[in-house]
């Protein structure tokens, strides 16, 4: 576009300059004709004051008393032959050009024309000259070397082309640099997309060193999309890995007992059926918990609503008492209405309480409590069990992980604490563990305290434990 614009401007400017030059030459030719006619009509030789004696004298006077401009030439012809010319300063000598002499030397009326000489175009005006008493016929010619006269216009156009070419190069270089910077995120998006494979979704577009603009926003959006895709794929892989890992054991047990089953022995059949039923029930719990963890990564996993925290804490304590013969205590309650998912929060506390029962003995103390501090809600379950070694405290929240405290192994799948952590994370919080071997353990859910809007006095909270799946009260051991 820049090249086309410069070409059009240069062409138009050159044409205007050429037209102005041609008009100037035409005006100059007409002016010279007027000078010639005044000399002829005066009929007196300015040099002697006497009447002209011949046509040759008239032509000589015309050429002598008219100063030729640059690229202008005066010539005089008598009876078809060259006789006079202005000072010899011309690209070519028209006086020696026989074709030009034949063209203008014998004209009988004023003639305008153009002639292609060895130096280019010649614009001329030939005026016949006669004198009473002289039979000779003369011709006065004014000629302009048009190509040389237009040289200034050509030089201007050449200069414009040169400046335009430099401008074009500078514009192209600037556009290349600017376009490269502007399109860098697009190339980064393309390169990142090409680098994404089924097994590697870790590629991201670097946006730290770019100023904020629309393309940077595009790169950020693509990175966010890749994060979601990678998270979804990772969740699918974890689900498949976990299911394959944990279901392989009960399937092997069932198959092994069925292979050695004696159909003729009623006791063997009865024991095998009971074992198979028990293993199938355990597989069902594992699948339910895995599905729950898979749903934990979806936005609708938690559905916050106004919750009376003190009432919820008291109700949870009343329900977990059924889990075992322990010294159940209420350490305190937070007096606040907050936005929480009562079903998920109850599910997490029941899982922690079930975990405490698994690792304590009858009569041991298990404490449930809640309080507000620093804009956060703390809900905890504390037990007096064997505690958790420091080396195990980080991994007890992993799927299928169990501590090495030496306590008995429960029949859980080791997913309870993973579910608790997922519920806390879905609320925007976390789970903290405070434990030392031999001194028990305290699991604390730290959740953001978001105040709930005022509720109607007649609105009763639904039973948060009523709709829990069976796995909710059978959380895995630590």
Give the SSE map.
Elements: H1 2-42, H2 55-64, E1 72-78, E2 81-85, H3 98-104, E3 111-117, E4 120-131, E5 134-145, H4 146-149, H5 151-195, H6 214-259, H7 266-295, E6 305-308, H8 309-320, E7 327-332, E8 337-340, H9 342-358, E9 365-373, E10 376-383, H10 416-426, E11 430-435, E12 441-448
Parallel strand pairs: 7-9
Antiparallel strand pairs: 1-2, 1-5, 3-4, 4-5, 6-8, 9-10, 10-12, 11-12
Task: Outline the structure in words.
The chain is of the alpha+beta class and 478 residues long. It folds into 3 domains: 2-153, 2-Layer Sandwich (Beta-Lactamase); 214-295, Orthogonal Bundle (Helix Hairpins), CATH 1.10.287; 303-473, Histidine kinase-like ATPase, C-terminal domain (Heat Shock Protein 90, 2-Layer Sandwich), CATH 3.30.565. 47% of the residues lie in helices and 18% in strands. It is built from 10 helices and 12 strands. α1 (2-42) packs antiparallel against α5 (151-195). The protein is rod-shaped, with a radius of gyration of 54 Å. It comes from Geodermatophilus telluris. One of its GO terms (cellular component) is plasma membrane. Residues 448-478 are annotated as: Disordered. Residues 242-451 form the Histidine kinase domain.
